[in-house]
Design brief:
By secondary structure, the chain is an alpha+beta fold. The protein contains 14 helices and 33 strands.
C-alpha cells in the first residue's frame, strides 16, 4: 500500500518509502537550511550512513541547542550549518537524518549551545567546533607532526564498514599460553635501520611479522592507537621538537590514529590497521590494544575544547563541587566512569573495536580510575568493570588492568575481577628487579612471584591467569638500561631531569652508562639473560618490551614520552650486533612452550611431586633470611603429549650472589635424571638450546656461577 503523502526522497533515487534494514522512512520531509531532513536513528549513536543520507545522533543532558556543521575537505569553516529542529530531540538525545549527503565529499562537527556556569560544571560555547564522541573516523594529523591547514580544528567523517575479513579467524590463544610483546607502532619501525617501506606506520609493522614469528611471541600489545594529537603541548628544547609521542592523550575513543597510516585514508579510515590485524591473525599472533579511558586530551580548565567538554562537561568528567577537574590521571582531567552515560560509551567503544577491528584484548591504562564513583571514591563492585567482565561481545577478549592510578589507588592483587580481569603485576616487576640485582631480603618475595603470585591472586577467586608478569615496559628503563644506569637520565625531556620514576631498582654493574670495560659489558649481558630466563620461567603471563631481545637502549631515559627520535625508536642494527641475546630470548620462549608447568598449574604429577615447591642449598629446605640470595623452584605436573600422559618436571635455580655456590637438586623419582636446559653464565651457543653446556651439573649437584640463572628438566 502506497503511504499517504509519499514522494521522491532526495538523493535516494527511491520514491514512496525508503527501507534500511527494519527502518522505513515516510515523507513528508522537513526542510532546514536547504536540506531535506527527518528525525534520525535515536538508538544508534554517531553518524550512520545509508544510501541517500546520513543519520547523526548525539547526547547532551544540559544543551539548549545542537547544530550540525558540514565542511569541505581542507577548509576551515563549514559550508552548511543545520540546526537540529526542536522535535528532533527525545530525552537527552538529538538525532537527525540529512538526505542527499555523499560521505566521500564532506566532514562534520557540531556546535552546542547551553549554559555557561563553570562553578556548576557547565562551559557550553557555541563557537567551538566539536567532534562526534562516537565518530568512527577523525581528521587528525594524517602526516605525523604536521597540522593540515591554517585554522584547522578536529572534525569527524562518516564511514561505512566495507573491509573484507575473509575467513581470517582469531587465534584465540589461552592466557596461560600467551607471550605478550609491547610495542609502539611508530617507534617500532621509524628508525632508518628497520628496513621497511613505510617506517613508523601500521604498514611498516606488518612487514615485521616474519621477525615476530621468528621470535616466537604470541601477541602484540600496541601502545595507544586511538586518535591523538602528537602536537598537543609540543615544545622545543635544545634544538629538538618534543611531542606527545606515546599517545596517552586520546582525542577519540572510536577512531584510529590517522598519522599511523602510510597512505591518507580519507573516507576509508582504519583499513591499514585492519589489514595489519588480519595479517597478524593469519600468522597466529593476537592483538591487544593499550586503551586510555581514564582521561582525554582536553586537559583541565586551560585545555582545549575538542568534544566532551563542549557536549556535556558535567557528564563526561569528574568535577569538584566548585566545577574544577579532579585529576586522578595526572593529566589534567579524569573521565567520569561512574556515570552510566560514560559507562555505556566505553562499553560501546570496546564492542566496536572487538567487532569491527577483531581486536583480541585490551590493556586498560590506570584502570583503577574506572572503579571510582562520580566523587572519586573507590567502589567495591564497580558497575563498569563488572559489565565489561560479563558483556557477551567481549566474552573472549583479554581484559588486562593497570591496577593503579595517579591518585594513589593501588589495587595490585585486589582489582575487581569476576575471574575475568588480569593485572599488570607491578609487584612482580619491583620485587624481581630487586632480587635479580642482588638486593638483600628478596628471596622469599622472588619465590612467590616465580610460582605465580598466589599470595596476591588466589586461584579460587581470581582464576589461574590473573598475573601478567613483566620486568620492563614502555614506562621506565629498557632491560639493557636497567643494568646500565643507576639513575634516570631524562635531561632531554626539558624538565631538569625531574620527571620519571626515581626508584628504578636498577644497577649499572659498576659504571654509569656506556663503557668499554669488557667485564662490565659481559656482566650486563648476563643480567639481561637472567631477567629473560626468570620472566619466561615464571607462572603467569609474561610480557616483554620490544627491543629488549636485542639490548635496545634509551640511553638512560626512563620517561621517553616526548621523544620522537633515536631515544625512542628501535635501532635494528642492534638486532644483528646482539644476535646472541635475540637467540637466547627465542630459545627461552621455546623452553616455555615445551614445558606447560612453567605456564600454569597442571594436573598433579603422577610421581607425587608438588605443583610448585621452593628449595635452598639443600632440597626442601629454603632459607628466607635477608642475606640469602640463592633460590631453587621446582615445578612438576602431569601433561598430555601425543596422546600419552607424562610428568613434566623443571627446576629453576637462581644465584644472585656475587659468589658461586653449589646446590643439591631434589631427588627424581622413577630413575629420572636431571638435564641442563639453560645456564646464563655460559657463552653464546652453550647457554641454551641443543648445545647447552652441562659442565655445571654433577649428578644431583649443580655448581652455579655468580649472578646466574639455570633451568634443568627431569627426564
Amino acid at each position: 500500500m502506497q503511504p499517504e503523502n509519499s514522494g521522491q526522497i532526495p538523493g535516494s533515487g527511491i520514491s514512496g518509502e525508503f527501507v534500511m534494514g527494519a527502518k522505513i522512512f515516510y515523507t513528508p520531509l522537513d526542510e532546514v537550511e536547504g536540506y531535506s531532513v527527518r528525525p534520525g536513528f535515536f538508538l544508534e549513536n554517531g553518524a550512520v550512513a545509508f544510501p541517500g543520507g546520513v543519520s547523526f545522533t548525539v547526547y547532551s543532558r544540559y544543551a539548549e541547542s545542537v547544530t550540525l556543521l558540514l565542511f569541505k575537505f581542507d577548509e576551515a569553516e563549514p559550508f552548511a550549518r543545520i540546526p537540529f529542529p526542536e522535535d528532533y530531540h527525545i530525552g537527552n538525545v538529538y538525532s537527525m537524518i540529512v538526505f542527499g549527503l555523499d560521505i566521500t565529499d564532506f566532514e562534520y562537527a557540531f556546535s552546542v549551545d547551553g549554559p555557561y556556569d563553570p562553578a556548576e560544571g557547565h562551559i557550553f560555547d557555541p563557537g567551538q567546533y566539536l567532534i562526534d564522541p562516537y565518530g568512527k573516523a577523525v581528521t587528525g594529523q594524517s602526516v605525523w607532526g604536521e597540522k593540515p591547514f591554517e585554522g584547522y580544528r578536529y572534525r569527524s567523517r562518516a564511514t561505512v564498514s566495507t573491509f573484507d575479513w575473509g575467513k581470517a579467524a582469531a587465534p584465540k590463544i589461552p592466557m596461560d599460553d600467551s607471550i605478550i610483546y609491547e610495542l609502539h607502532v611508530r617507534g617500532f619501525t621509524r628508525h632508518h635501520s628497520s628496513g621497511v617501506e613505510n617506517p613508523g606506520t601500521f604498514a611498516g609493522l606488518l612487514q615485521k611479522i616474519p621477525y615476530l614469528r621468528e621470535l616466537g611471541i604470541t601477541c602484540v600489545e600496541l601502545m595507544p592507537v586511538f586518535e591523538f594529537d602528537e602536537l598537543s603541548g609540543s615544545r622545543e628544547y635544545e634544538g629538538n621538537v618534543l611531542l606527545d609521542y606515546w599517545g596517552y592523550n586520546p582525542v577519540s575513543f572510536f577512531a584510529p590514529n590517522s598519522s599511523y597510516a602510510a597512505v591518507n585514508e580519507r573516507n576509508k579510515e582504519g583499513v591499514e590497521l585492519k589489514q595489519l590485524i588480519k595479517a597478524l591473525h593469519e600468522n597466529g599472533i593476537e592483538v591487544i590494544l593499550d586503551v586510555v579511558f581514564n582521561h582525554t586530551a582536553e586537559g583541565d580548565e586551560n585545555g582545549p575544547y575538542i568534544s566532551f567538554k563542549g557536549f556535556d562537561n558535567k557528564t563526561y568528567y569528574m568535577l569538584t563541587p566548585d566545577g574544577k577537574y579532579y585529576n586522578f590521571s595526572g593529566c589534567g582531567n579524569t573521565v567520569n566512569a561512574g556515570n552510566p552515560i560514560v559507562q555505556n560509551m566505553i562499553l560501546e567503544s570496546l564492542r566496536y573495536w572487538t567487532a569491527e577491528y577483531r581486536v583480541d584484548g585490551f590493556r586498560f591504562d590506570l584502570a583503577s580510575i574506572l572503579g571510582r564513583d562520580e566523587q572519586g571514591r573507590p567502589m567495591k563492585n564497580p558497575p563498569l568493570l563488572k559489565e565489561l567482565a560479563y558483556d557477551p561481545i567481549l566474552a573472549n577478549v583479554k581484559l588486562i588492568a593497570e591496577a593503579w592510578d595517579a591518585g594513589g589507588l593501588y589495587q595490585v592483587g585486589t582489582f575487581p575481577s569476576w575471574k575475568r580481569w588480569s593485572e599488570w603485576n607491578g609487584k612482580y616487576r619491583d620485587e624481581m628487579r630487586s632480587f635479580l640485582k642482588g638486593d638483600a631480603g628478596f628471596s622469599g618475595a622472588a619465590a612467590r612471584r616465580i610460582t605465580g603470585s598466589t599470595d596476591l591472586y588466589d586461584p579460587e577467586y581470581r582464576g589461574d591467569h590473573a598475573s601478567v608478569n613483566f620486568i620492563t615496559c614502555h614506562d621506565g628503563f629498557t632491560l639493557m638500561d636497567l643494568y646500565s644506569f643507576n639513575e634516570r637520565h631524562n635531561h632531554a625531556n626539558g624538565w631538569d631531569n625531574s620527571d620519571g620514576e626515581k626508584n628504578n631498582h636498577s644497577w649499572n654493574c659498576g659504571s654509569e652508562g656506556e663503557t668499554d670495560d669488557p667485564e662490565i659489558n659481559s656482566l650486563r649481558r648476563r643480567m639481561v639473560k637472567n631477567a629473560c630466563a626468570v620472566l619466561f620461567a615464571s607462572r603467569g603471563t609474561p610480557m616483554m618490551l620490544s627491543g629488549d631481545e636485542f639490548c635496545n637502549t634509551q640511553f638512560g631515559n626512563n620517561n621517553a614520552y616526548c621523544q620522537d627520535n633515536e631515544i625512542s625508536w628501535l635501532d635494528w642494527s642492534l638486532a644483528e650486533k646482539n644476535r646472541d641475546i635475540f637467540d637466547f630470548f627465542r630459545e627461552m620462549i621455546v623452553v616455555r612452550k615445551q614445558h606447560p608447568v612453567l605456564r600454569s598449574a597442571t594436573e598433579p604429577a603422577e610421581c607425587g611431586l608438588p605443583s610448585a615447591s621452593v628449595h635452598g642449598f639443600e632440597p626442601w629446605h629454603f632459607d628466607p633470611s635477608s642475606e640469602n640470595r640463592t633460590l631453587g623452584v621446582l615445578f612438576a605436573g602431569s601433561v598430555e603429549q601425543d596422546g600419552e600422559k607424562r610428568d613434566d618436571i623443571v627446576y629453576v635455580a637462581l644465584n644472585m650472589h656475587w659468589e658461586a655456590h653449589s646446590m643439591q637438586l631434589p631427588e627424581l623419582p622413577g630413575g629420572k635424571q636431571w638435564r641442563v636446559l639453560v645456564d646464563t653464565s655460559e657463552t653464546p651457543g652453550k647457554d641454551i638450546g641443543e648445545n647447552v653446556s652441562r659442565d655445571s651439573l654433577d649428578g644431583d649437584m649443580i655448581h652455579i656461577a655468580p649472578r646466574t640463572v639455570m633451568l634443568l628438566s627431569g627426564i
